[in-house]
Amino acid sequence: MRLKHKILLWLFTQLILFFGLSWFIYLLFVQKSFFKIEKEWVFSIASEVIKYLEVEKKRSELLTRDWAVWDDAYDFLTGKMPNFPKSNLNRETYVNNKLSVIAYLFLDGKVKAGGFYDKKADQILPVDPVWLKEHYRYYRSLYPEITLQSFYTGLSFYQGVPSIVSFYPVTDSEAKKTPVGLLVMVFPLEGEKLDLIKDIFGLINIDFITFQGKKIENTIKLNEKGIYEILISLRDFFGNPLGLSFTVSKKIAFEKYLEKFLLVQFLVLMMVFGVFYFHMRLILKKIEYVKSEIDLISKGKKEKITLKGEDELVELVKRFNLVYSLLKTQLEEVNKATKIYQMIAERSNLAVAVFNQDEKLVYANSFWKNFIEENLEKSIFSFIDREGLEKTKPFKLCFKTKTGEEVCLSFEVIPIKEYSLYYLVIGYDISYLKEEMDQLFVRATKDQLTGLYNRTYLEDIIKRIFDLIKRGQEYSVIFVDVDYLKDINDQFGHLTGDRYLKAVAEVIAKNSRAEDIPVRWGGDEFILIIRSDLEGAKKVAERILQGVKEICLKVNGNEIKGSVSIGVAKIEPDKSLEELIFKVDQALYQAKSEGKGKIKVIV
Question: Are 405 and 513 within one domain?
Answer without folding.
Answer: no
